[in-house]
Amino acid sequence: MNLEMQRFKAEFFKALAHPLRIRILELLAEGDKNVNEIQTLVGSEGSAVSQQLTILRAKNIVSGTKEGNKVIYTLKDPMIIELLAVAKQIFNNHLVDTITILDMFKEDEEEPAMPKK
User: Fold this and answer.
1) 67 pLDDT above the threshold of 90
2) Which listed residue, 13, 39, 76, 103, has the most CB atoms within 10 A of its CB?
3) Is there a contact between 35 and 71 (Cβ–Cβ < 8 Å)?
């Protein structure tokens, strides 16, 4: 069972491993949208957006519901919103750590050299 869970997690994170897919999920976190709306908001070709939505659908991360001649996409699980927020916080933590390290290097460079006797 543990191995199956690890495989699920690996496949799940592989499905998220594309900047456009993450952007699509961020947009869907704001509310349901059709392909044209997503395409306009991301400024990408419809075929690229459709391709990424197909991957997200195949992994049951988003679902599509046909309304007239449009397909409306929605997040399958609202916990995706929390996952994206946690990922952003982890990024911010890494950024803070990097800034702290850079500040330490900067302080070291600014210290005057000790005169030799």
Assistant:
1) yes
2) 39
3) yes
